Amino acid sequence: MTANERKSFWSERLPIDWELLQHPLREPVPYHMNFWWFALGGTPLILLGIQVATGILLTFYYVPSPPEAYESIRYIQNVVPFGWWIRGIHHWGATLMILTVWLHMLRVFITGAYRRPREFNWLIGVGLLFATLAFGFTGYSLIYNQLSYWATTVGTNIFKDVPVVGPLILSFLRGGLDVTANTLTRFFSVHIGVLPTVMVILLAVHVLLLRVHGVSELDPKDTRRIVFFPDHVLTEIIVGFYLMLILTSLAILFPPPLGELANPASTPLHIKPEWYFYPVYRWLRLVPGTVGLVGAGLFLLVLTFWPAADGLLERWFPKRDLSVVLGSLVAVTVAAAMVWEAFVV
Amino acid sequence: MEERGMMGRRDFLLNLGVIGGIVVAAGGSLIHALRFLLPGMARPAERRIRVGTLTSLSEEALFRTIGGVPFVLVRRGETVRAFSSTCTHLGCQVKWLPQEEKFFCPCHLGYFDANGVNVAGPPPRPLDEYKVEMEGNNIYIFLPLPEQGGIEA
To answer: ipTM of this complex > 0.85?
Structure first.
């Protein structure tokens, strides 16, 4: 078979216009995309890939049933060759993913990249943030240690105060009235099936909207351009290598703890959720249930529809860029609540 | 006479049949799927259980779990009261502080007195109380116990 025959063999069976497919790869993007801190959206995407790969590997040994779940993780951590590495990367990958999603969001906020015409993509982005947090919550609930059990109990109980449908939501989340084996299988199913599906759909729309709008300009005077492929892709590959280095170092230096086996009859004296829920946790310690729920709900509502709220602020105070001031205040308050919760009992 | 652009009776009925059929089929499936996802929500019926004797019960609070239902017995002289040990805020298990004679919830720092009344922190109401009956020296309480069988942690 000659080269030409081979070419026609494949083009006949795969009648795809490769030139057209390569077109989006060659799109020119602003020069600032060369710097990873301006392209922070790519980092959680790489981390998602790492989480999917390590997550699939973990399911080869994980048993989603109490108390075997705890034992299976102990087995992964202590017996399976390189189990500690896969679990360590998955644990720290989750932490870094949540951190980088927040940082990406903060960058978008501060540079005003959510403004017209990109309001919908902010909305999709908030959906991705919620999905990431839900990944974290369902993920650490699967270990079936004391933290998992009581975080699941508290986390699901928050919804019981929702007017009218509260008990229904509680029963839906728990698979019954209490946290039982049904809850664990539900969380497992959501963690490895529902959330990945939701996330992939949202990500597809997020990236599609990003491509049709184009990357937002940082400085309109800067007309320098790089090509998406290979320039920007190379930056992301380098980021990927650094991430693996960081994750492996963290897995070696700070292996994720296993904790004590869950005991539904006794809540430990010092119990806290993972760090990314510290602000909510501190808030719930300060105020009664309904106020806590309404307050958190309002915050999330404003965050979700921020482009609309920002539009109103601009109309009322046209000469002041209040969004940056407000956003910075909220970011500092959230960070302060995190530090307060981390260092004060 | 039929006007241009307006749907005829035949087409209208056809559309109604097709769309209505899809809505009914999808709705029916959705209701069944929801029922599948929402198992029974009714609290199980209360059952009378013997939990010990008065003479064996000290003046301290005694925590126990029967059939997955955690509770605490509090004795004051000849009187025994039984409370759910589940915090009314977000469902953690309370602990007894003997010096202060209070229950304490470690999750969000809620406090209840020895009568189960919420006295500090975020709990919105007192601890749930279970009915107690004494028969001679024996203590019986009425616990909402789930049916035997089924999957339980």
So the answer is: no
